[in-house]
Fold each of these.
Amino acid sequence: MWFRADLRLHDHGALRSAVEAGPDGVVPLFVLDDHFPAENMPVRAAYLTRLLADFDERIEGLHLVRGRPEVEVPRVVEQAGASSVHVTAGHTPYALRRDARVGEALGDVPLVAADSPYAVAPGSVRKGDGSAYKVFTPWFRAWQSQGAHPPVTAVRSHAVPWVRPGGSVALPDVREADGVDLPAAGEQAARAHWRRWLDEHVDDYDSERDRPDLDTTSRMSVHLKWGTIHPRTLLADLAERSSAGARAYERQLAFREFYADVLHEWPGSAFGYYNRDYERMQYDEPAGDFEAWKEGRTGFPFIDAGMRQLLAQGWMHNRVRMAVASFLVKDLHLEWTHGARWFRERLVDADLANNQHGWQWVAGCGTDAAPYFRVFNPVGQGRRFDPDGAYIRRWVPELRGVEGRGVHEPWTLPDPPADYPPPLVDHAQERLETLRRHDALGG
Ligand code: FAD
């Protein structure tokens, strides 16, 4: 069993297939990349060290090797005399290339991808004529019509004849994450967190999900990204509840599945434009304003609160992700790819399909895109979704002393806090500039 982002025992189709195929022994293999920990992903690298430590303890010993998978996996297969290699299918362009190389290097030993990180494997929901959907709502209906996805029975670690062929490298030291306060890592943490959230918040999810000040969304993205829980488990629990909140949550989970499907069909949308018309848009080069955005010093409190939450927690509320992304693209006129790269570097839940398509949706060049001319107002978003300013005060200490709604526009106060920057841009003007550039595209 070659584990990747799926270090868990419950609801694990690939692990179950490995156990069934290997009644005499299963090697719990994990391959550390030569370059791990990569300096450009300090937050995720730190989180992975925790996941590895947790799972290693859970199963009393991962077999850990370091190097290129196409070299290391066949080596372990030979060493252990394994007859097959079992994995959860990967769906990013990198994972597809890697698995193709490993499959080839394995020769006659099959690489079995018996499961995916999704309730419905990407590429399975198709129109009657076999083509892919480009719009979420009809895709969602078709996805729903596939019916229930019962979880796979859990594997009990003590019942698995684990085999460690020797030569395992040491676990990487648990690392700190550049000042980020990371969430608890591992399957037990994920399951406990989910049960608690389900009991306390799911029924209000539909009415509260857009309110960063309430902070009651599930924060399951990190556990889904790292595969310490499978969405089938979540969907099975949700199916037992009849609230509007549970239905709204299923729909959000389906967005994750939809974006994976879009990536499967259009792999070029991972790093390029889904709607290529926008390649011709006039953009500015990142400079000091990009740095101010990254540091949460734009002078727009709702934007700065989000960017500082990202730095502090490696996570940001969805509503704020949309607002800060819109600010980067439509107030600073930078390409979405710059912001998406920063998010991938800092988010502990950074997921290629969700991140790149989330960014493209905001930038107007993705599937179901918000029309380009709909420009989020950075003050209006705060007033509407953080009405009392509690979210702003939590993340922007310079504004904690500001009472009332003035916290959304400190520059209008008679005595603005001296240590908080003035607005980086004039939003009304930049909005017009965005529309001008859009018109220049020629419709
Ligand atoms: P909840 O509101 O509790 O939602 C439950 C789950 O549904 C999430 O964990 C997630 O798996 C899924 N989900 C919810 N909203 C979306 C959405 N809009 N698109 C896709 N899936 C969704 N999500 C990531 O997992 N990784 C990313 O790298 C990522 N980057 C984003 C970048 C931008 C610019 C935008 C606008 C959105 C991005 N999202 C990303 C989607 C969304 O913001 C996060 O999934 C969500 O904020 C995670 O918090 P939560 O688990 O509390 O969400």
Note: The first strand starts at residue 2 and ends at 3.
Amino acid sequence: MSKVVTLQEFIMEKQADFPFASGELSRLLYDIVFASKVVSRDVRKAGLVDHILGAQGNTNVQGEEQQKLDVVADEQFIHVFKNGAEVCGIASEENDDCVIFDDEKGRNGKYVVLFDPLDGSSNIDVNVSIGTIFSIYRRKSEVGTVAVEEDFLQPGHEQVAAGYVLYGSSTMLVYTTGRGVNGFTLDPSIGEFCLSHPNMKMPEIGRIYAMNEGNIHICNPGIKKYVEYCQSDENQTGKPYSGRYIGSLVADFHRNLIKGGIYIYPATTNDPNGKLRLMYECNPLAFIAEQAGGLASTGFERILSVQPEKLHQRVPYFVGSKLMVEKALSLLEKE
Ligand code: AHM
Ligand code: MG
């Protein structure tokens, strides 16, 4: 019988490669693993528990209705970050401003975490896959002081780690620290994430495109040309691609990471910067995509190079297999 490697063991092994490192990033990753298990448990019983399923009645900073489970997940992650001693502040989709931990532990934390506690939340009530996305940066301000907004507004290429948890037919956690991408599946019988997808590589080309085609007439004409190209047999594979759009970025991204494909959320005339948030949706998945051999772009700039100006900034997003993203970008009309 081959040995099962748990996520905890994997993090510990990687930590041993850096004997002089303090282990704080490893401890922060353990905290994320723990919170993910709790949220996974809550997601799994969402349909059974009235007070979890359904709308909370509040709207978040982007004017979207918060689902109860969004709030539950947000609070769970904030709780573990606040109680660990590694994080000096967080920012999330559900909070208007960054949340600074100004107690002694917080002031001594080295890292900031930006996260989307439950992405694809409109899918909760209909039992479709959803996910958590996280992005970790080393703070810019001095350790021992209270964190400031500049600690959060760093370009994606400064990320020290990023990942996502997919609450799908099984729960998976996929992450990178800049040395490749590894995927772990939660075994509910033992409550452990086990290494199931070592050293993940995104195929250079796939046969799946994912986009909300309802927007096709209100975006750059190059997108329509690209979608027609995907649907024709003149494309790079000689057969029409399959259109697959779950409406949960994590799930669409994860499928494309494994099978090869492209995900597009372009700028539209209604939303000139697209819909997705740079800091806790686009950057972390761009880091993973690049680490797995894929690409991520706004259409005109590498996602990881975008200098953020605002916490909840939106950007147009093209992410996935290298050759597919390159082809889509080549058809875009200059703005
Ligand atoms: P959310 O964070 O409010 O759930 O919004 C992000 C989601 C993505 O997961 C998904 O790909 C996209 O919004 C779907 O948007 P649309 O319904 O406009 O196609
Ligand atoms: Mg989201």
Note: The chain is about 30% helix and 25% strand.
